[in-house]
């Protein structure tokens, strides 16, 4: 079943077409990777899909419901959550409290939220850090907390904006494994923007390539990354593509 349908969305900023007539669909339970050089429009596309920005034109449908330009809380209720590239947890709150706040924002009662949040904290591997103030977390912990806050709304589709950025290779593998279990065991559909090609190759069922706001191509990971147009679009960006 098609869970997410994005049709011909566009967004301009003062004449610059950051996202230009982009369409794609995501099947329930699948993983879509979105790649493209810096400034290709990936984050803007996420913002259009997740309701952070209204598109100038085009539509977004989630499980058949039109959510184009809907406010983030409505989109959350419809079953979509996202993580941010720049994480903004409440620094003075503990890991558990941060996730409980997100759980309450998604409709849980004050009484039930802590226990439900604790399940999510366990799920993302932060049990040991549960009562730590979130501002004291290392980057890998903050990334997991960001995932937990998004998972707290029990989404059907999760949009991940560079969830591996800033992690050293040894920290990336367990996060990739976590993403795989979220898909396999919880049936969560994943759409992720990522510069680290090894992760894109490992996780994606299909890949969408953006360049200058437009879809350059899409398809299976191996096919897409060997496409001369994709290699050309990335020329001069080797270090970023390979990841830090
Ligand atoms: N709020 C804004 N106002 C003006 N221009 C913007 C705004 N947001 C994005 N842009 C421009 O839109 C284009 C696409 O930016 P976007 O951040 O979506 O690209 P990206 O593919 O996510 O890049 P990166 O990989 O560097 O994160 C860029 O030229 C950027 O400067």
UniProtKB/TrEMBL annotation:
Top-rank taxon: Bacteria
PROSITE patterns in UniProt: ABC_TRANSPORTER_2
GO CC annotation terms, alphabetical: plasma membrane
Keyword Nucleotide-binding in record: yes
Domain ABC transporter: 4-237
Alphabetical list of InterPro entries matching this protein: AAA+_ATPase, ABC_AA/LPS_Transport, ABC_transporter-like_ATP-bd, BCA_ABC_TP_C, P-loop_NTPase
Name of the protein: Branched-chain amino acid transport system ATP-binding protein
SUPFAM superfamilies to which the protein is assigned, alphabetical: P-loop containing nucleoside triphosphate hydrolases
Keyword hit for ATP-binding: yes
GO molecular function: ATP binding; ATP hydrolysis activity
Alphabetical keyword list: ATP-binding, Nucleotide-binding, Transport
